[in-house]
Design brief:
Elements: H1 5-19, H2 31-39, H3 42-57, H4 65-80, H5 84-97, H6 103-118, H7 122-134, H8 142-155, H9 159-174, H10 181-204, E1 237-242, E2 246-251, E3 260-264, E4 268-271, E5 291-292, E6 300-301, H11 304-318, H12 322-326, H13 332-341, H14 345-350, H15 352-360, H16 372-378, H17 388-408, H18 421-427, H19 429-449, E7 450-459, E8 470-480, E9 488-489, E10 495-500, E11 503-508, E12 519-520, H20 531-542, H21 549-552, E13 566-567, E14 574-577, E15 584-587, E16 593-595, H22 597-618, H23 622-639, H24 645-660, H25 664-682, H26 687-704, H27 712-735, H28 741-756
Domain MYND-type: 280-319
Protein name: Protein-lysine N-methyltransferase SMYD4
Domain SET: 235-523
């Protein structure tokens, strides 16, 4: 049995190609007809049903008190060892695996509230205490939870609620007749002392505010206010239509760099499986203690409100083993989620005619938040442009999902007239095909219009000092933003995308004149990818040939080649390939032509030295590593263009070695030499440059600390560090909002430098 969905699709596609059936689909125009074609094929339908049954039989979604108890006991051991983080993780898994309203669930929640309290997460602790009470926590232990509630309120300086919690603890203790007299007396005294102290604080009226929760930030609003005719967009933008460009976005006034142009909530999104344990299934926010689905062990939330909203809108159709199946189908899961979010079946059937009309009205340039599904539906699916094999696989996926809804859920079942799945499929095939067709449409749309929700993550190098961290983008979820999807593509966009939880925030990354078009980048960016590769991706995935400036201007196709170029002996510019000879190149700056044999030979020698340095670094021989890297650097700067990627990597390794040896001044000097190359390749406002500046400022801070405060050297280094920190801050403010951890770190660094000033 094939265990991978893509493997199954490939096998079915190969089989259909051999007998010529897969091409049948290309002759059909309506998406529901495409679905009906394969649902009527018994062989394919049975293969899909077998896959669904196989996936369900191997699903591990069920909750068990035995597993929950085992995890809780393991958590208790960690808690006794004062490993609060370790105990929190185990208690959370116990909470997730405990059946709904079971004593095991209440015990796990209560224990997790203790770990959270010791970690200083008082709001989360209070949430778990409330859930423990709701789940039937043993009455004989209620006083303990009320005591913990009071301690949380005390830490938060919420003295009125602390008094109320202590009074509740008193009442619970009085009602307990089976507690040992000595223990009861001790608990009673503790409560009375705490009550006296809390009452005193309440009389004093202390106004000091201590918060345990992560900082919460207000969502920004579009610059110039929100557009009344273009949902989620700034009033500075207009949505327009032309035969040549289709729907596109234009500035109706001068837009300045940094202006916020969109703040859009997605119509739907799907958290990636590897992020389930960190991000809410419903709002995408980062949580500390999960509130699990009451039925399965996969879906996790930041709050009860998100759990309920998720269940009402879509999760009831994805639960009970469905998520394991959906996790295997990639972007198609989001296409499925879009249909579920559109509303119940009756609502979808009711708006069927309007949906068809909306396609013919796709030139419409008015859109509001109340009719957002219509605008998702209007997005181009490009079914007619797809290779027949791709279309076949997308259709098979949609058929499988329609069968899943039919056989594994009650989605198609009317309460007044329930039918077995086989009869349902036969008697209401038009309805099943209608829903399957919608799923197919949205899968196809998302190939072109899906957005990856990302966050900036920080990691420390393994087996090295933890002074210099690295930052990289991590995918959290996949989403659909119908308004932002109206922007056309450019390989040199004039906007920057960032995310706050599920919200997409679009800023102008340079000034846009009145009447100028607002361009997004669909992925292929000229600073990251060569022209040929960009054009291939745009043709195959987005079905157009790009004519933006980087793709059209003479010489622009050589931009990426500069960063793998050899060194011109005349002007130190980049030597680029020519058609005249493989042994001769021409400078991209001055046009000088020269033989490259000696340069190539030197570059190979440098590579060998770099490899030797890497081996020495891996085994911890810093002196040998530094020696090899510096020799490599010496060779590379005489044979490679100054912004060659290999030269930058080599200098970065030299800087790392100096930092690990504690010679921060030399490390700073090396990192400063990397900045021009990074700026030339990625731009002066790029996140790549900001990351380099972050790294540089980290080392600068350690360098400053090695000098006497107030000395000339100290003041000079302090001034330079402040300059680079502020430069990084300006870029990060443009790229992200204040909720971004990178920006928060740089602000903290700025404050530290202010305190260090003498």
């Amino acid at each position: 049995m094939i265990k991978n969905w893509q493997e199954l699709l490939d096998a079915v596609t190969l089989e259909s190609n051999k007998i010529g059936t897969s091409k049948k689909i290309s002759s059909l125009k309506l998406q529901e007809d495409m679905v009906e074609l394969w649902l009527n094929e018994n062989v394919y339908r049975e293969k899909l049903l077998d896959w669904i049954k196989f996936t369900h039989s191997n699903a591990k979604w069920m909750k068990t008190a035995t597993v929950a108890s085992k995890l809780r006991i393991q958590g208790n051991e960690k808690f006794k060892e004062c490993d609060n983080v370790g105990s929190l993780m185990l208690y959370t898994e116990s909470v997730v695996h405990a059946p709904r309203d079971s004593e095991e669930l209440s015990l796990a929640l209560a224990n997790r509230s203790a770990a959270l309290f010791h970690l200083g997460a008082y709001q989360e602790s209070l949430q778990d205490i409330a859930l423990a009470f709701q789940s039937g926590y043993p009455t004989s232990l209620h006083y303990k939870l009320h005591m913990r509630r009071s301690q949380c309120f005390s830490r938060l300086n919420r003295y009125m609620e602390e008094v109320e919690a202590l009074q509740s603890a008193q009442k619970c203790l009085e009602l307990m007749g089976d507690v040992a007299l000595s223990k009861k007396s001790s608990s009673k005294r503790n409560i009375e002392l705490a009550l006296s102290k809390a009452s005193s604080q309440l009389r004093i009226g202390s106004t000091e505010n201590i918060s345990d929760s992560p900082k919460t930030f207000c969502l920004p609003v579009p610059t110039y206010g929100e557009n009344e005719r273009f949902a989620y967009a700034s009033a500075a933008l207009d949505l327009r239509y032309s035969q040549e460009k289709g729907r596109h976005v234009v500035a109706n006034r001068g837009v300045q760099m940094g202006d916020i142009l969109f703040v859009e909530r997605p119509y739907a999104f799907v958290v990636l499986p590897d992020q389930y344990r960190a991000h809410c299934h419903n709002c995408c926010s980062l949580y500390m203690s999960a509130v699990p689905c009451e039925e399965c062990t996969l879906a996790r939330y930041c709050s009860e409100a998100c759990r309920q909203e998720s269940w009402d809108q879509y999760h009831q159709w994805e639960c009970h083993g469905g998520l394991e199946l959906l996790n295997s189908i990639g972007i198609a899961h989001l296409g499925f989620r879009v249909v579920l979010k559109a509303g119940p079946l009756r609502k979808l059937q009711g708006i069927h005619t309007k949906l068809q009309e909306s396609v013919s009205q796709s030139k419409d340039t008015y859109r509001d938040k109340q009719d957002n599904y219509r605008y998702v539906y209007q997005l181009m699916p490009h079914l007619e442009d797809m290779q027949h094999e791709d279309l076949f696989q997308y259709t098979m996926t949609a058929c499988m999902l329609a069968l899943y809804l039919t056989y594994c859920t009650h989605y198609f079942t009317e309460e007044a007239n329930p039918l077995p799945p086989d009869e349902l499929l036969q008697n209401r095939k038009s309805t099943v095909c209608f829903v399957g067709g919608l799923i197919l449409r949205h899968i196809a749309q998302l190939v072109c219009n899906g957005h990856a929700i990302t966050k900036l993550d920080k990691t420390f190098p393994e087996n090295e000092n933890r002074e210099v961290l690295t930052e990289h983008q991590v995918r959290i979820a996949t989403a659909i933003y119908p308004s932002a999807s109206m922007m056309n593509h450019s390989c040199d966009p004039n906007i920057i995308n960032s995310f706050y939880n599920q919200y997409l925030i679009v800023r102008a990354c340079r000034d846009i004149p009145r009447g100028g078009e607002v361009f997004n980048c669909y992925g292929p960016h000229f600073r990251h990818m060569g022209t040929r590769e960009r054009q291939e991706i745009l043709r195959s995935q987005y079905f157009f040939s790009c004519t933006c400036k980087p793709c059209s201007l003479p010489g622009q196709q050589d931009f990426q080649e500069r960063f793998s170029a050899l060194l011109c002996s005349e002007c130190s510019g980049p030597l680029l390939r020519t058609s005249e000879s493989p042994h001769r190149m021409a400078c991209g700056d001055c046009g000088h032509r020269q033989n490259i044999s000696s340069l190539v030979e030197a570059s190979f020698k440098a590579r060998a030295l770099f490899d030797e340095g890497s081996v020495a670094l891996d085994v911890g021989d810093m002196a040998e590593a530094l020696k090899m890297f510096e020799s490599c650097w010496h060779l590379r700067r005489h044979c490679l263009y100054r912004s060659h990627r290999d030269l930058t990597v080599c200098v970065d390794q030299v800087a790392k070695c100096y930092s690990m040896l504690g010679d921060y001044a030399k490390s700073v000097d090396c990192l400063l030499q990397c900045l021009p190359a990074v700026e030339e390749q990625f731009g002066s406002n790029s996140i790549e440059l900001a990351n380099e500046l972050q790294k540089l400022s980290d080392v600068m801070m350690f360098d400053i600390a090695q000098h006497v405060p107030g000395s000339a050297t100290y003041l000079e280094k302090h001034k330079k560090a402040t300059e680079y920190v502020q430069r990084a801050k300006r870029i990060l403010e443009l790229q992200y909002g204040i909720w971004n951890t990178g920006l928060q770190d740089i602000i903290c660094k700025e404050q530290q430098l202010e305190q260090m000033a003498v």
